[in-house]
Amino acid sequence: MEVIVVKDKFAGGKKAAEIFKREHDSGAKVFGLATGGTPETTYAELTKSDLDFSDDVSINLDEYVGLGANDEQSYHYYMQKHLFDEKPFKKSYLPDGTDLDAAKETAHYSEIIAQNPIDLQLLGIGENGHIGFNEPGSAFDSKTSKIHLTDSTIKANARYFDKPEDVPQYAYSMGIGEIMNAKHILLEAFGKNKAEAIKAMIEGPMTEDVPASVLQNHPQVTVIVDEEAATLLAK
Ligand SMILES: O=P(O)(O)OC[C@H]1O[C@](O)(CO)[C@@H](O)[C@@H]1O
């Protein structure tokens, strides 16, 4: 695991965009994408760059169950606004939050992931160590599933909604086993509220209680953290 400490999220976004460019130049064709506050500076850099994804495929990690693409809180809407409007891909996949048949939608999404092996997977990390929406206790070999969000995640994501009660309770998320199949994983974390999760991910035991700790077992992981998220790491 390579850990790169940067000054702040803006320097982190620049570093991550450099890694996207390097992978793209080396022939990467399938990009796994994330949402949330963390990747916003990365998408801002990619948007300004000369990278052209029009021959590539993107596969997002997750979507809230019940939200459609026109809903401003949906991850479809987020991706359109932060990246795809400026940098369209040949094909972009996200789970369909409006399909309430969970067995059908999750099997379909797993099939898409199996058919499009991910070259570079961008990840954030939850304050409780989740990756994608795979909450503590998720199996390390899990496939796409419908996840019941924890109170901690609902609280953390409530900032995007008018009231905490509006945050959906469920999401469809790519599974940990599917994330681990990506060739190269790039995880970003910015801010002091991520410091404990980052310490547990890098220095703690590998345990399903901290989903991100599974990355200790992946052959190519790059972690970009700002100084605040790195504060608890051993020097
Ligand atoms: O970047 P944020 O907003 O802190 O969220 C952390 C993680 O939790 C999620 O919101 C849930 O998947 C991710 O999109 C993100 O990587």
Automatic annotation (TrEMBL):
Keywords: Carbohydrate metabolism, Hydrolase, Isomerase. InterPro entries: Glc/Gal-6P_isomerase, Glucosamine6P_isomerase, Glucosamine6P_isomerase_CS, NagB/RpiA_transferase-like. Pfam families: Glucosamine_iso (PF01182). One of its GO terms (biological process) is glucosamine catabolic process. CDD domains: GlcN6P_deaminase. Its EC number is 3.5.99.6. GO terms for cellular component: cytoplasm. The active site is at D62 (proton acceptor), N128 (for ring-opening step), H130 (proton acceptor), E135 (for ring-opening step). It is an enzyme of class 3 (hydrolase). One of its GO terms (molecular function) is glucosamine-6-phosphate deaminase activity. Catalyzes the reversible isomerization-deamination of glucosamine 6-phosphate (GlcN6P) to form fructose 6-phosphate (Fru6P) and ammonium ion. Belongs to the glucosamine/galactosamine-6-phosphate isomerase family. NagB subfamily. This is Glucosamine-6-phosphate deaminase. It comes from Ligilactobacillus apodemi DSM 16634 = JCM 16172. The lineage of its organism: Bacteria, Bacillati, Bacillota, Bacilli, Lactobacillales.
